[in-house]
Amino acid sequence: MLNILKTENLKSYYIFETPTEKKEVKAVNDVSIDIEEDKIYGVAGESGCGKSTFLKTVCGLAEPPLRIVGGTIYYLVNGKYVDITKLSQEEYRKLRWEYISYIPQGSMSALNPIIRVKESFKDFVTAHKKIKDDQKDFEEPLRKHLNALGLPMRVLKSYPHQLSGGMRQRVTIALATILNPRIILADEPTTALDVVAQRAVIQLLKDIQSLQKNTIILVTHDMAVHANIADRMLIMYAGVFVEEADTEELFENPLHPYTKFLIGSLPKMGDKSYKVSAPGSPPSLANLPQGCPFHPRCPYVMDICKNERPALVETKPSHKVSCFLNSKERIQND
Ligand code: SF4
Ligand code: MG
Fold first, then answer.
1. Residue limits of the ABC transporter domain (predicted)?
2. For labeling, which of 36, 102, 116, 174 is most exposed (least CB within 10 Å)?
């Protein structure tokens, strides 16, 4: 399987500078990760751990105060790896939406509220493609796309406020995928929806992936959503990935103490026992502890954990973890 996205030692910080002070919030703190084609990845972790920033950064949307301070972001484009941190704005614009599609958090507002949905689709498509024949180049593909995704044609005539929150979200996702992007980055697309609408959005993303054979990276703190949709999972903590495995394996055999807490705190059918969540709260990304970032909360903390940072390494086939309980590998502290 080919990797469609690779980051190497990626660091992306929010930097706040005043004449007397410089504050760095290390939201993505030295991340090297490979994302395979044709898979749904789930990125999980408590809020404030860097999930959204990771997505924004790899999507090429880092804007001040967020800055990429180190590392590379490679996408496989037409068989060649392209480092998007080195592209000009024009080169990047060509990749955006046709190759990389981003569905931001609270994307309900992505539709223009004062025009009908069909006009939003038209504005979007014409911004990227030359339309010669309205019927053949726009109407037909649009209807085919909505049909394939099981969306009713009536949405086209509606204004966004006439649609329910769940339907608006599905329409936004249909819009973001109409150009058949190779990779879709979605930030909390089911948050703020009721359970029925959530299920419809998850099904829609699954349908898109099986139709278009693209890669989806889905960020959500909701482990139940991941269990439902993700092929593979990445657990994020304090700006780094601490565990990566296929979803079933991760839920059955979590290796990192933090992942164990995340999974252990999930309610199970018929189980009324008290659930333990991780003690304490995540560290401030502006003031990370030395060594393993989880050590102040970890019940298994050892001396080495307080000084050295564990590297993310494969300890079982296709299962990576960054914890000294599982591997002695460490990364250089800077
Ligand atoms: Fe706990 Fe040490 Fe593993 Fe960090 S490296 S998770 S502190 S045992
Ligand atoms: Mg977020």
1. 5-263
2. 36
